[in-house]
Amino acid sequence: MVKSHGKKQRARKKAQRTGAGYASAAAGTTHEHTPLPDMAVLEKLPHVAGRDLDLELAARLVAACRSRCRPCQRTLAEKLRTEQRPTLTALAAAVYATLPSPGFIASSTTQGWAPTARAGKADPAAAAEALATVEAMDDAAASDLLEDALDHWAVGGASAEEIADMVTVVPEAPPRQRPADPMDLFREAGVKVFTLDDLDLGDDVDTYALAPAYGVMPMQTSTPDGQPMPMLLLYPETDGAGIEDLEARTDWEHWGLHGMPDMDPLWRVRARIADRSLQGLVHVGPDGEDDVELWRATQSVSLPADWWDLLDRVQHLLVVGPVADPEAPGAMEAAGDAGELLAVVARVAFV
Which residues does the annotated region (Disordered) include (predicted)? Predict the structure, then answer.
């Protein structure tokens, strides 16, 4: 009995180590798919910095995919999905952070996650969000993401050079700087400047009412690969709102209507599920509090069902502005041609 029990224990451990089924491990009929790819570069991805990865499991799974061994794929993929979400993140990020888009056939899970992974190449906050999102996925969503990623790995995936280039570029990418505060000129001239924080007025003053404000117009556009994407067009509503104000208060890039601007997960469009309405456009600071508020809804207006469904599916949207008269034909195109459009891909935060 002791000998039999020991044999069973060894078989279970072998099955766990190799990913083979218990029966195969017990019978000594396990097999390996060779050559095993070198997955060491995954540890250098910014999306999983500091986390322990199971590189052997990742290599066995990729090798099984390339050998088209379905039994091993199923067993190894289940182990990866349930026990190693950081390794799953690394496998997916190595593909989707190097591609310009996830492609038409990718699942809705991957379509929504890929922009964050791509932004994580140069933005530590986005890289951390990409990992946190995968760790929070339910089993079905994690399965979709892994299956999409493995489709690429099965035919080679991103080359080692592409991944290495991405890893090399990240530490050297200079941070995007906002324009200098014009108040600094007064300070340098010896003029004492008081801010609202200096006055310590607490919650008695609504700073949103003191800054230039914008209106928004929901629209729809397409990604470079033809996928529909929700869009929000900003237009000035108060004096001072315009291109110079947006340049001073945001780090959005100038956009000429071609391609897609960068995704910044710290820019959030809040959408209320209860009445299918948009509530605000804000930037979240390092402390988790809103530090820039460009737009706030004065009343709740339910959005068209098809636009809301697209927003719910994509969970990111293109924010563009400013356009003085958003309803004028060709106004946005004219602003883009004049170099007077700023844009960012923002995250949707459902509340």
Answer: 1-34
